[in-house]
Amino acid sequence: MRIDLHTHSTASDGTDSPADLVRKAAAAGLDVVALTDHDTTRGHAEALAALPAGLTLVTGAELSCRLDGVGVHMLAYLFDPAEPALLAERELVRDDRVPRARGMVAKLNALGVPVTWEQVARIAGDGSVGRPHVATALVELGVVASVDDAFTPQWLADGGRAHMEKHETDPFEALRLIKGAGGVAVFAHPAAAKRGRTVPESVLAELAEAGLDGIEVDHMDHDPGTRARLRGLAKELGLLVTGSSDYHGSRKSCELGEFTTDPEVYGEITRRATGAFPVPGAGGA
């Protein structure tokens, strides 16, 4: 089995619609794909309606968190999307995205970059607006060569010249909410240092003690040495190890299935979940 547990669609900051994403996942030879858009489950219905035969969909979301000034992403799998507490927190995070993006546009204008809110809104479309949409605007204007080049201290990285804070959940609170909604929690790309500061490994130990299920080890932002170190840490802490593409369509260079999760780990994730269950495709529209 080929299992990719971290992808994004146009419901947040990917470039493929949810329907196109699941079709591409099947064409890429995946057996299981998780749709984990940022702080939203809005793409799930479309993905399920289009789910090809032979592909199983794991519903999920990537929750925006912050601890001691460090951005943290928590992958939530197979939770009940209607559970009130987690739903309210996701809405709170999403509602802060627009003023945050407008603030980044204002900061860029002050730096002499002629980006406009209308440009960013056009790029975001119906998705939850975020930094990748602002980064894409910078690419369109020729300010940077790629989206990744915009995530630097010069521009949009945490603490960067045009960065703006937004409401983000404490990861321990996110963990409590995910568990309360019957979900499974995996810490996304915990050592992706090129994105900015990362939390110390002691925090992973504290989260493991609080009920964290796993960490995303095999990821494009982890070099081989980092992956080996994290795999050892996961074993020491009794955490599951996942691998994923973090696919965003054309917005990033990674491909579907670039990294994958072991079938036994996937089976354990599905056993632990009580809020929802994986959905096998029957041949979508």
Q: What is the percent of helical residues?
A: 25-40%
What is the 3D form? globular
Structural class: alpha/beta
Q: What's the Cα radius of gyration? A: 18 Å
Biggest sheet descriptor = 8 strands, mixed
Query: What's the β-strand tally?
Result: 8
Number of continuous helical runs: 11
Account of the 3D structure:
The chain is of the alpha/beta class and 285 residues long. 38% of the residues lie in helices and 15% in strands. The chain has helices at 18-27, 44-49, 84-95, 97-110, 117-124, 131-140, 147-150, 171-180, 201-209, 224-237, 263-272, and strands at 3-7, 32-35, 56-67, 70-77, 184-187, 214-218, 240-243, 279-280. Strands 1, 2, 3, 4, 5, 6, 7 and 8 form an 8-stranded mixed β-sheet that branches. Helix 5 (117-124) packs across helix 6 (131-140). The longest helix has 14 residues, at 97-110. The two termini are 24 Å apart. The mean pLDDT is 94.
Summarize the structure.
This protein is α/β, with parallel strands linked by helices.
Question: What key phrases describe this protein's structure?
Answer:
8-stranded mixed sheet; 11 helices; alpha/beta; globular
Set out the fold topology:
Layout: E1 3-7, H1 18-27, E2 32-35, H2 44-49, E3 56-67, E4 70-77, H3 84-95, H4 97-110, H5 117-124, H6 131-140, H7 147-150, H8 171-180, E5 184-187, H9 201-209, E6 214-218, H10 224-237, E7 240-243, H11 263-272, E8 279-280
Parallel strand pairs: 1-2, 2-3, 5-6, 6-7
Antiparallel strand pairs: 3-4, 3-8, 4-5
Helix pairs in contact: 5-6
